[in-house]
Design goal:
Elements (H helix, E strand, L loop, with lengths): L4 H12 L14 H10 L8 E3 L4 E3 L2 H11 L11 H30 L7 H21 L13 H16 L7 H12 L1 H10 L14 H4 L1 H5 L1
Antiparallel strand pairs: 1-2
């Protein structure tokens, strides 16, 4: 959970609105704990939201964020008001998840594979998908502060961790200044800064740790 980009996406939304919650990390080596977790999430995917008050278990990050927005609203709605803007937020939420987060995970997982199990063609295709996504984001962010305009939304919750990791495995390049500027704004958002600070002690476990900019590593960079 500490390094999961999809968990980070939900944490950002929770921190944006100061939603009270209890986080739990499941030890996959604990058979009993894993069995209980699989009862809630049969595919073994994280994160999962358990709302005891309403006796509901919610899967999928976008649905979790919308569920919290509906039942535990804060000062910063993650879904904009008005159907056109809500649709725009949902669109970019999906684009960041499917065309940035998913391909970057393909690249990361491939690095963890044993010799003889690598998928160079799949990695090449994933990198191409990231570059195409960057080009779309570059055009889209030419006149915007956040993904849907001037208001931070679910789309930005998806964008922040996706771009954080993707920019390490496939840098944005100087040809995409709007992507880079948008990412810098995301880094300064308190909710995302807090999420990264909590994850920083575990960055040494990230397979591309050696490619991470020193500014992301904090005090660890000085010790390297």
């Amino acid at each position: 959970m500490t390094l999961s980009s999809f968990c980070h996406k939900v944490l950002i939304a929770l921190y944006e609105n100061g939603v009270s919650f209890e986080s739990r990390v499941v030890n996959p080596g604990d058979e009993e704990a894993r069995a209980r977790f699989l009862e809630m999430s049969p595919f073994g995917k994280i994160p999962v939201l358990r709302d005891e008050r309403r006796d509901r278990t919610i899967l999928e990050t976008s649905i979790i964020i919308e569920y919290v927005d509906l039942h535990y609203p804060g000062a910063h709605p993650m879904l904009p008001e008005g159907d056109p803007m809500r649709l725009e937020a949902r669109l970019w939420d999906r684009l960041f998840d499917l065309y940035v987060n998913v391909p970057l995970q393909k690249i990361v997982i491939d690095r963890l594979r044993s010799t003889g199990e690598h998928d160079p063609r799949g990695v090449s295709e994933a990198r191409a998908t990231l570059r195409t996504a960057y080009d779309m984001i570059e055009r889209h962010m030419a006149d915007k502060t956040w993904a849907t305009g001037e208001s931070f939304s679910i789309a930005d919750c998806a964008a922040a961790p996706a771009l954080f990791y993707a920019g390490i495995v496939e840098p944005f390049s100087e040809a995409r200044p709007n992507v880079a500027a948008y990412f810098e704004r995301l880094l300064k958002r308190p909710s995302f800064a807090r999420t990264l600070a909590e994850a920083r002690p575990y960055f040494h476990m990230f397979p591309f740790k050696d490619e991470m900019p020193a500014r992301f590593l904090g005090d660890e960079a000085a010790e390297a």
